[in-house]
Specification:
- The complex is a heterodimer of chains A (89) and B (124).
- Chain A has one helix and four strands.
- Chain A has one helix at residues 13-25; strands at 31-33, 48-52, 57-61, 87-88.
- In chain A, strand 2 and strand 3 form a beta hairpin.
- The chains are: A alpha+beta (89), B mainly alpha (124).
- The interface between A and B is medium-sized, with 14 and 14 residues.
């Protein structure tokens, strides 16, 4: 079930602070975050983030049509390099 | 054969069923449209006159229901957006794999298509 609209977007309070100060100062340096569960609000647009994927940080540049998605959607947690060829021993 | 909304030509079936040949109109919407237009659901689509057909198509347009080309464009636009922003769902669409977290070790044949058998290669 979808989240109630009355609550608005969820953003981790700590991350929210960083986002707002970065926007005020127009600071485009990447913000590192572990908060994959935070939703992208219009205030994020134009910022560079680095979202933790469990191992390292994936760079994410926030654009307008990413609003409403969660940060984790842009930092894949799995790397799949394809299957091994089947060889007979 | 009656024409509705330009391209669609539903057959010699009762109206609620004929309407379902239009892309974007399913059982519920078809039944409702017929009811709202005050038509008898047992009448065949062939037996409708211009006026009755117009009533249905007007209802579809005025309610802003997306059908046919507009709906297809809407859907493919959504897919394009997901793929353009590089999000997980977009990547799954591009790969042709299930999007909503289903398992893929077995099953998932609707998305993956026919089974591809992998042959054993001889070791040199």
């Amino acid at each position: 079930m979808a989240r109630s609209l009355k609550k608005g977007f969820f953003v981790d309070p700590g991350l929210w602070k960083k986002i707002t100060t970065a926007q005020e100062k127009d600071d485009r340096r990447p913000i590192k975050t572990w908060s994959r569960r935070s939703q992208i609000t219009p205030e994020f647009v134009g910022l560079n983030l680095e979202v933790h994927n469990g191992k390292g940080f994936a760079p994410v540049h926030i654009t307008e049509n990413m609003v409403g998605h969660r940060l984790g959607e842009f930092a894949a947690t799995r790397t799949f390099k394809g299957h091994q060829p089947h060889t007979k021993k | 054969m009656p024409r509705l909304l330009g391209v669609d030509i539903p057959g010699n079936k009762k109206i609620p069923f004929a309407l379902r040949y239009i892309y974007g109109i399913g059982p519920t919407l078809a039944d409702r449209l017929v009811k709202d237009a005050g038509l008898d659901p047992d009448v065949r689509a062939n037996d409708l006159d211009e006026e009755q057909l117009n009533k249905i198509s007007e209802a579809i347009v005025s309610e802003g229901i997306l059908v046919e080309g507009d709906l297809r464009r809407d859907v493919s636009g959504n897919l394009k957006r997901l793929q353009a922003i590089q999000c997980y769902r977009g990547i799954r669409h591009r790969r042709g794999l299930p999007v909503r977290g289903q398992r893929t070790q077995c099953n998932a044949r609707t998305r993956k298509g026919r089974r591809k058998t992998v042959g054993v290669m001889k070791k040199k």
